[in-house]
Amino acid sequence: MHYKVIIPAAGQGKRMGAGFNKQLIEINNKPLIVHTLEVFERHAYCSGIILAINPLEEQIFTELISKYSLKKIESLVHGGKERQDSIYNALKTITSDNTVLVHDGARPFIEHKLIENLILAAEEFKAAIPAVMVKDTIKIVENNFVTSTPNRSELYAVQTPQAFNKKVLLDAYKDAYANNYYGTDDSSLVEKQGVKVKIVDGDYNNIKITTPEDLITAENFINRRITDV
Q1: How would DSSP label each residue in 66-131?
Q2: Which end of the chain has less neighbouring CB within 10 Å, N or C?
């Protein structure tokens, strides 16, 4: 059940409006990315973390790794222009045949149990992603007018980490670049290869920190966890 995880952390997060890499924003006096990394640092089945970063921030991340004693960081890889480029740069450094996870650095509330469910599914089906059913009605819109209303029971919001057989993911990336294709997530690249992707029940608490409002939610969630303990 051992795995390696790729975490892209090179983006600037423009929707956050912080003026710097949102991964470095502090939540309860600790950088967001550290909250995320510590989940995998504590997980017994994680055999290595590959972090894709902006080369201009390498010293910052090196200092964070030392300060918080993050022993499972296998390498710091320079990110590319797009998220997909960053992940590919990281993926090419993995020499083992472990299951590979790709996780958003801005999702610090992932639980070990969900990770394990994803690994088991990926070992059986080659590809697995966490998703939750959407709660709101979704509209398809064109030129500011509704064109259709899809059946909500068929719609899922996809999360990370996404888990894959390493060869399946690497082949999907190679094919994407050969055809100049950029997907919206890793699963979309694998889907284009005809691989069936298994849905694993996600967690509504597994939020992605994207806007200033999300920071308030994250702080409240962390404080609630501390109080519960």
Answers
A1: HHTT-TTEEEEEE--SSHHHHHHHHHTT--S--EEEE--TT-TT--HHHHHHHHHHHHHHSEEEEE
A2: C
- Is the model's pLDDT at 185 over the cut of 70? yes
Pairing of strands 156-158, 73-78: unpaired
Instruction: Summarize the confidence of residues 107-114 as an average pLDDT.
Output: 96
Query: Average pLDDT over the chain, rounded to whole?
Result: 93
* Beta strands 46-53; 162-164: pairing state: unpaired
Which residue segments constitute the domains of the chain, with CATH numbers given? 3-228 (3.90.550.10)
Q: Read off the tokens for 204.
A: 């509504």
Partners of residue 156 on adjacent β-strands: 133
Other C-beta atoms lying within 10 Å of the C-beta of residue 52 = 27
